[in-house]
Each structure stands twice: as structure tokens, then as C-alpha cells.
Amino acid sequence: MRPRDIDSIEGLTPRQLRVLQRIADFHDRQCYSPTIAELAKELSLSRSTVFEHIGELQRKGLLTTSPGKARSLKLTSRGRRLHRHVADESPAPSAQALSGIPLLGQVAAGIPVEAIENRQSISLGSCFSTGGDVFALEVSGDSMIEENICPGDYVVCRAARTAENGDLVVALVDDGEATLKRFYKEKDRVRLQPANARYEPIYSNNCQIEAVVVGLLRKL
To answer: Does 143 participate in catalysis according to the annotation?
Structure first.
């Protein structure tokens, strides 16, 4: 169904709507804005085409950005209203997706014990949440492989702006790129330590913590 709000925005094209939705979804998922290169890759468009669409969305009052910053794309209040309206038109998630998957008991990884069915359920929220700020990210790359964090795994994160020494964090470094590393605060800088001998530590004077990792999920 074509959302009614689209008709009220003169000249908004389906592709411009897709760009707007991807920016909003990316920010909700990652807690920071995508770069033009990331949008181009996700949408299978050229960077110049994405740049043109962003300019049009800004002109129509749906998007703002800060010149010179790689991750500054943000939806305006009008853009957010449109995004919510489009999301409301999408099919609702199933009851199981909202409540989690059934937790039917325990199973021993050592001496066998009787598995007792208890008809509870398990979800990310029940396992990891101490508030409404828990989310998951898919791991890309092998820089944490020696801690058994592999490409394709999902790390469960709690949004945070600070971290303790030794915490596994999602951080933005000087070039605006996000990275998953162990956090260590040194005398006059931060060290982001990989867990792969092939990679060097990242040192930064301008490290921005986005989240602390609290769990790990993997498909077998």
C-alpha cells in the first residue's frame, strides 16, 4: 500500500523513500548514522546517486547532516514521522518473535541429567536487558577470532558512552568507522585491542564508545 504521507511530500520518489528508510533503520540498529559508502553498498547504488538523493531529502526537510562529518545523517522530526508511518504499514511481527523462543528445560554438557520441560520462553531482552537499550550487531571480519568471536556471529550490546578497562566495546575511531575491540585507557590515549595476532592495536585520542558487548549469539 502506498503510504498517505508520501503523497503530501511533493516529488518524493520511491528510491528517495528507500534511502530515508535505510538511514533510519541503520541508525536504530547501529546507534550511529551510516556513511554514504555504506548506504550505496546496501542499496546497490553509486555514491553519487546516494549523494543526490540525500540532497533532495535535505531540501524537503526530511534529513539533516553536518558538513565534514562522516556519520552525521539524521532524520528530522518530519522524516521520523514519515518513517514511522511507513513502518506501521508493514506486517506486524509474530507473537513468537515478540516473546522469544520456548525454553523447555536444561541439558547437560557433562554427565547426563534428566531434561525437565518447564514451558518458559527465552528472549534477548530476558537474558541481557537491564533497560531498553540492548541490541545486536553482526560481526564482520576476524580481528577478534582468538576470543572465539567469528564472522557471522552476533554480539549483543548495551548502548553506553563509557567503558571500563578490558570491556569488549563497539567504538567509533578517528576515521568515523565502527570497530569491535577490547577497550583499554592509557595515559594520554585509548587502545583498542584486537584478538588476532595479524592485527595491530588501534590507538586513538578521539575514541567514541557506542556500546559495551554483553553477549554472543551464533548459528550452528
So the answer is: yes
